[in-house]
Design brief:
The chain crosses the membrane at residues 21-42. The protein is built from eleven helices and 27 strands. It is an alpha+beta fold. The strands form eight sheets. The protein has a seven-stranded mixed β-sheet with strand order 18-19-20-17-23-26-27, with helices on one face. The chain has a four-stranded mixed β-sheet with strand order 3-7-8-9, with no helix packed on it. A hairpin with a 6-residue loop joins strand 11 (183-188) and strand 12.
Length: 570
C-alpha cells in the first residue's frame, strides 16, 4: 500500500501520534472507572489491595472488614461497614461492629479476646466528623448523638444532644481496646449522660465539656442510677446469717433458700464508678447525729440493711442496740438503733402513706379514710433528724387505695371517688409543703427513695403471684416495666419545692432484680407440704437480706458524698 495516498500521511504525521496517545488514555481511564464501579457495586475485594497499600489480609476470617471512604467536595462522609451494606449519606457516621483503629491507621476487627482478626489500611485516619450525626445501634434501635469526632488514634470523641434526641440508656461493648489490653465499653447515658468508657476512656457531658474519666470520682454530672448489674464475688457487705436484727421475713438464708447467687451482684453506673460503702467512714460522718427512715415496710427493709452494714464494722456488737430492747420490727411504730461508740442513731418510723390515716363518722357509722391534706402524727419523731429518707408507694397499690371510693378525705369532705394517681399527687404535695415549712434552710438533708418494683408473675400479691423460680437478674432492657407513673408525679412535686431533696431513683435498677425477693423463703417450712402450700402466698415485693437494699444504701452513701452537705463535705 502507498502510504502517500492516505489522508494524513503527508500533512500531519505528528498528529497521528497525538491522537493515538489520547485514545489510549481514554480507554485506560474507562477501564479503570469500570473496575471501580464493579468493585463498588458487587462489594468485591478484587481491587481492595490496590487502594490499601497491599496490606489487606483476611487471615482466613470471613468477617474481615471492608472500608469505603466516599468523599465529595461539598460534604465528606465516612462509612464503616462489613458484609451488610450501610447507607452513607449527608455525613452520617454509623457504627455497627466491634472494631479497632490503631495509631498507624490500621482498622481492625477484634476477636472475643481482643485479638486482631483482620485489618485494612486506611492511610491517615485523622478526619474529624464534626457537626454531623453519630449513630449508635443496638438491637435494631438507633440512638442519635451530635457533634461527634474521631481522632487519629481511633478514639471516639463526642457529646450527646440529649435535649434534642432524648437518648435513653444503651451501650456498645468492646468498641476499642486500650494499650494495656483491657476491654472498653462505650455507654450512652440517660438524659444528661454522655459517651463513657469503662477504663481509661474519655467521658463527655451534654454541654460539650470534658467531664471525668471512668476511673476517677463521681462528683461530676454522673447519673449513678443509670447502669447495669455486674457479677461481684466480693459481695455482700456482711455474711449471710451474721446479722440477728433482720426480720425473719427478709432473712432468706435463715429460711433455707438453697441458692446464694442473688447476693453476688454489684450495681455499676455507665458513666462513673461509685465508692463502696465504707461503714467506718459512714459512722464517723454520722457521729453525734440522727438518721431516720420514714415510710413503709420497704424502707424498713432498707433500714435493717443499713444497720447490718454499719453493725458489721463494730468489733463489740453489744455497743449496737435497739434503744427499747426490741428484736422484731414488723409492728407499726418507732425503732432506733444506737451506735454507742459514735453517739449516733439509725431509726425507722413506720408511716406507709406519709399522710394521716384517719376515720370519718358518716350516716351509717365510722369508716377508715386517708387524710390527703394532713401529715401523719409521727412527724415529731423525725423533725429533729439530721438525715431523713422518705418513701411511700406500695400501700397505694392495695385494693382500698386503688379503688378510691369513699376513702380519700380532705377537710370534712370524703371523696365519693378519686383516682389513685390524683390522690397520690395531693398526698405528696402535702408532704412537700411540710418539708418546706420544717426543713427549708435547715441542716437536715432530705432524701426521697423512689418506688421499688415488684415481680409477681401469674397474679398479684394476694392471689397467687410468684417469683420463687427466679435465680438471676433480667439482662435485657426490653423486659423492664415502664417508669412508674407515681414517680412521674413525684418529679413534678419535687421540682416545685424550695427545699433541696435528693431523689434516689432506684426503680429501674430494682426492676432488673427479679431474683432478689424472699418469694416462698419468707419463712421456714417444717414440712414439704407446707412449703408447697407457700407457693400460693409469696413475697415478691420485699427483698432478701443481704441483697438489693444493700445497694440502695451504697447509693445513699454515694448520694450523701455528692451532696457535700455538713459532715459530708470532704
Amino acid at each position: 500500500m502507498d502510504l502517500k495516498k492516505l489522508p494524513f500521511s503527508d500533512s500531519s504525521p505528528r498528529r497521528k501520534v497525538v491522537v493515538s496517545g489520547f485514545g489510549l488514555g481514554v480507554a485506560a481511564s474507562f477501564i479503570f472507572v469500570c473496575i471501580l464501579l464493579l468493585n463498588y457495586s458487587f462489594k468485591s475485594p478484587f481491587v481492595t489491595p490496590v487502594f490499601t497499600g497491599f496490606s489487606y489480609s483476611d487471615n482466613n476470617n470471613s468477617d474481615s472488614t471492608l472500608i469505603s471512604w466516599p468523599f465529595s467536595f461539598s460534604n465528606a462522609s465516612v462509612s464503616l461497614s462489613s458484609k451488610a451494606s450501610h447507607n452513607v449519606e449527608n455525613g452520617n457516621f454509623s457504627v455497627q461492629e466491634t472494631k479497632k483503629i490503631d495509631e498507624s491507621g490500621i482498622f481492625s476487627n477484634l476477636g472475643e479476646k481482643g485479638e486482631i482478626l483482620g485489618n485494612t489500611h486506611v492511610l491517615n485516619f485523622s478526619e474529624n466528623v464534626k457537626n454531623e450525626s453519630f449513630l449508635v445501634q443496638e438491637s435494631g434501635i438507633v440512638k442519635k448523638t451530635h457533634g461527634s469526632e474521631i481522632d487519629g488514634n481511633g478514639t471516639v470523641l463526642g457529646i450527646l444532644d440529649s435535649t434534642k434526641y432524648n437518648v435513653t440508656s444503651t451501650y456498645i461493648e468492646d468498641v476499642v481496646r486500650s494499650s494495656g489490653g483491657d476491654r472498653k465499653k462505650v455507654a450512652v447515658g440517660d438524659g444528661k449522660g454522655g459517651l463513657s468508657v469503662e477504663k481509661n476512656g474519655v467521658l463527655f457531658q451534654s454541654d460539650g465539656e470534658l467531664l471525668i474519666r471512668r476511673d476517677k470520682d463521681f462528683y461530676g454530672d454522673c447519673d449513678v442510677y443509670d447502669g447495669e448489674w455486674v457479677r461481684d464475688d466480693t459481695k455482700p457487705y456482711y455474711p449471710p446469717g451474721s446479722c440477728p436484727i433482720i426480720d425473719r421475713d427478709f432473712d432468706c438464708h435463715l429460711n433455707k433458700r438453697p441458692d446464694d447467687e442473688y447476693i453476688k451482684w454489684r450495681w455499676q453506673p455507665y458513666a462513673c464508678d461509685i465508692p463502696s460503702l465504707n461503714a467506718t467512714d459512714f459512722l464517723e460522718r454520722l457521729r453525734g447525729q440522727k438518721l431516720v427512715f420514714v415510710g413503709d415496710s420497704l424502707n424498713r427493709n432498707m433500714w435493717e440493711s443499713l444497720v447490718c452494714i454499719l453493725r458489721h464494722s463494730i468489733r463489740d456488737k453489744k455497743r449496737v442496740y435497739e434503744i427499747s430492747g426490741r428484736h422484731e420490727f414488723k409492728k407499726k411504730g418507732f425503732y432506733a438503733f444506737r451506735f454507742e461508740d459514735y453517739n449516733c442513731s439509725v431509726d425507722f418510723v413506720s408511716s406507709p402513706f406519709l399522710v394521716r390515716q384517719s376515720t370519718f363518722k358518716g350516716k351509717n357509722g365510722s369508716f377508715e379514710t386517708l387524710r390527703l391534706d394532713l401529715m401523719d402524727k409521727t412527724t415529731s419523731m423525725y423533725s429533729d433528724a439530721d438525715i431523713v429518707i422518705f418513701n411511700t408507694g406500695h400501700w397505694w397499690t392495695h385494693e382500698k387505695t386503688s379503688r378510691g371510693e369513699d376513702y380519700y378525705q380532705e377537710g370534712n369532705h370524703v371523696h365519693g371517688r378519686l383516682k389513685v394517681l390524683e390522690a397520690y399527687k395531693r398526698a405528696i404535695s402535702t408532704w412537700a409543703r411540710w418539708v418546706d415549712q420544717n426543713f427549708g434552710g435547715s441542716r437536715t438533708q432530705v432524701i426521697f427513695r423512689g418506688y421499688s418494683v415488684t415481680h409477681f408473675r401469674g397474679g398479684p400479691w394476694n392471689s397467687g403471684g410468684q417469683c420463687h423460680k427466679e435465680t438471676e437478674p433480667i439482662f435485657k432492657k426490653a423486659y423492664l416495666a415502664k417508669y412508674p407513673s407515681k414517680m412521674k408525679v413525684l418529679h413534678h412535686v419535687l421540682h416545685n419545692m424550695t427545699t433541696p431533696v435528693i431523689y434516689m431513683n432506684i426503680s429501674r435498677l430494682t426492676d432488673y432484680r427479679k431474683d432478689g425477693h424472699p418469694s416462698i423463703y419468707r419463712k421456714e417450712y417444717k414440712t414439704v407440704e407446707k412449703q408447697m402450700a407457700g407457693v400460693h402466698s409469696q413475697d415478691c415485693s420485699h427483698w432478701c437480706l443481704p441483697g438489693v437494699p444493700d445497694t440502695w444504701n451504697e447509693l445513699l452513701y454515694a448520694s450523701l458524698l455528692k451532696s457535700r452537705k455538713g459532715s459530708w463535705k470532704n
